[in-house]
Structure formats: structure tokens, C-alpha cells
Design goal:
It contains nine helices and no strands. The chain is an all-alpha fold. The chain folds into two domains: 2-31, no CATH class; 43-120, 434 Repressor (Amino-terminal Domain) (Orthogonal Bundle). Helix 2 (12-19) crosses helix 3. It is elongated, with a radius of gyration of 19 Å. The protein starts with a helix and ends with a helix.
């Protein structure tokens, strides 16, 4: 769709008619969605204070870290990485080494200060209800 907009100079209405969707949906798909777009990393999405602060200071998103690790960004990868950032799953040694190399932080700086996890996965929510 972005190609139609940029190279063929089609309007949102023309693109919407071609795909059978609304102009608003075309605008959303073209203008907003970008998994590598930086979003402020909130405390509930990363319990590792040093790593979270580095990500915010350098405007690096979780999606960008996943991409730099050489992994495909998809819902499964994003969910697994989010669980690790929340402290629900451990990072592997290779992931820790990569993050330390990427950030230039020491282990203590990146992972030493850890806040209580406040984010949950669907599985944890289910088990808490039981």
C-alpha cells in the first residue's frame, strides 16, 4: 500500500477501493504501523531498570532489538522477548551477551537492578484464577 501511495501517487480513497477497505484503515496501515518505531519503554514492560533506561535514552524499541539479534519479528518472537523483558522467562547466555555488547553496559548495570514484575502472560492470569 505504501508503494501505491508513494510511487503511483494514489489517494487513500483509490487504495481503499482497490482493496475493499475504508480510507481510514488505509491511513492507519500506511501511516502508523511500524514495529521498529520507538515507543517509550514503560516500567511494566521491562523489569531490568538499567536495560530499560538504556533503551529509552537511545530510543531503541523491543522490535529493534529483536531485529538486531537477527530474529524475524513476528507475534511469537515478540511475545517470547516481552516475557523475558518482564522477568517471566530467563534470557539465554547468548541473549545476555548480545544485549551487553549492544548496549555497552556491564551485567550489573543492565540486569543488576530489577523491579518486581508487574506484567503477566495469559498463562499466569489463568493459573492465578484457579
Amino acid at each position: 500500500m505504501q508503494l501505491l501511495r508513494d510511487e503511483e501517487h494514489q489517494t487513500y480513497a483509490e487504495i481503499a477501493a482497490k482493496y475493499g477497505i475504508s480510507r481510514q484503515r488505509v491511513a492507519q496501515m500506511i501511516g502508523r504501523w511500524n514495529p521498529y518505531h520507538f515507543q517509550y519503554v514503560k516500567p511494566n514492560s521491562c523489569v531490568y531498570v538499567g536495560l530499560r533506561n538504556w533503551m529509552n535514552e537511545h530510543r531503541v524499541s523491543r522490535a529493534e532489538i529483536i531485529r538486531r539479534m537477527g530474529l524475524a519479528y513476528n507475534p511469537t518472537t515478540a511475545h517470547r522477548f516481552a516475557c523475558k523483558m518482564c522477568g517471566n522467562q530467563p534470557f539465554t547466555i547468548d541473549e545476555i551477551e548480545f544485549l551487553l555488547h549492544l548496549t555497552g553496559l556491564t551485567y550489573e548495570q543492565a540486569f543488576g537492578s530489577k523491579e518486581k514484575p508487574i506484567c503477566t502472560t495469559p498463562q499466569q492470569t489463568e493459573s492465578a484464577r484457579s
